[in-house]
Amino acid sequence: MSRIQAGVLQLELADVDLPGLAGRLVEGFKLQSAQHTFELDFPADFPPALADQERLRQVLNNLISNAIKYAPDGGVIRIGGWLDAARQLLTVYVADQGIGIPSQEQEHLFQRFYRVDSSLRRKTQGAGLGLFLCKAIIEAHNGRIWVRSEPGKGSTFFFTLPLGAV
Ligand SMILES: Nc1ncnc2c1ncn2[C@@H]1O[C@H](COP(=O)(O)OP(=O)(O)O)[C@@H](O)[C@H]1O
Ligand SMILES: [Mg+2]
């Protein structure tokens, strides 16, 4: 955390198979959460990302953990992505059918220690660091992270990674 605050997140870059990484994470989460259905949605020709595999594992792990935690009634959690070949950009998303996030809260989620005030928040544990860490990691890769969400319907978190341009 202190290294991130200092803005010196060191990345160990290699080819990362994101569909494979997501698939392995999902196998673990399936054992933890029987209420949720996990779906992977990557095209067969999704290319490897030049990225830090352990850091991207943390990002996906945080996003999937949130999807589970903030969809207490279960539902589908879909993890997918696509290549924008013209812009040489990978986009990855994690979508849930959970409680959603009011629009006025959405811009704050990625701040350190920020948690949306809700009855579920008071029941669930968290330090409000997960999305802050995700943003630091994605931005260290020269990517972007954002959310689209509707209260009561669910949330989709997206991040981009430039293809080999870190
Ligand atoms: N998938 C999601 N659905 C609804 N709210 C979410 C989701 N992911 C994150 N949030 C909201 O954003 C806040 C910040 O998330 P995060 O940084 O991971 O902290 P934590 O999970 O420790 O509370 C959460 O407290 C929650 O209010
Ligand atoms: Mg979290």
Separate helix tally: 6
Which band does the percent of strand residues land in? 25-35%
Integer-rounded radius of gyration = 15 Å
CATH superfamily: Histidine kinase-like ATPase, C-terminal domain
Instruction: Characterize the overall form.
Output: globular
- Classify the helix fraction into a percent range: 25-40%
Instruction: Quickly give the CATH architecture.
Output: 2-Layer Sandwich
Structural class: alpha+beta
Number of strands: 7
Segments where pLDDT lies below 50 for 5+ residues?
A: none
Ligand inventory: adenosine-5'-diphosphate, magnesium ion
Largest sheet: 5 strands, mixed
Gap from first CA to last CA: 21 Å
Order of helices and strands: HEHEEHEEHHHEE
What would the CATH topology be? Heat Shock Protein 90
Q: Would you tell me the overall average pLDDT?
A: 91
Task: Strand order, main sheet: write it out.
Answer: 2-4-5-7-6
Query: How many distinct domains?
Result: 1
CATH class: Alpha Beta
Describe what you observe in this structure:
This protein has helices at 2-5, 18-32, 53-69, 103-106, 119-123, 130-140; strands at 14-16, 36-41, 49-51, 75-84, 89-95, 145-150, 154-162. The chain is α+β, with helices and mostly antiparallel strands and 166 residues long. It has a single domain (2-162), classed as 2-Layer Sandwich (Heat Shock Protein 90), CATH 3.30.565.10. It has a five-stranded mixed β-sheet. A two-stranded antiparallel ribbon has the order 1-3. Helix 2 runs parallel beside helix 3 (53-69) and helix 3 runs antiparallel to helix 6. The protein is globular and about 40 Å long. Adenosine-5'-diphosphate binds at residues 62, 66-67, 70, 96, 98-101, 109, 114-116, 121, 126-132, 155.
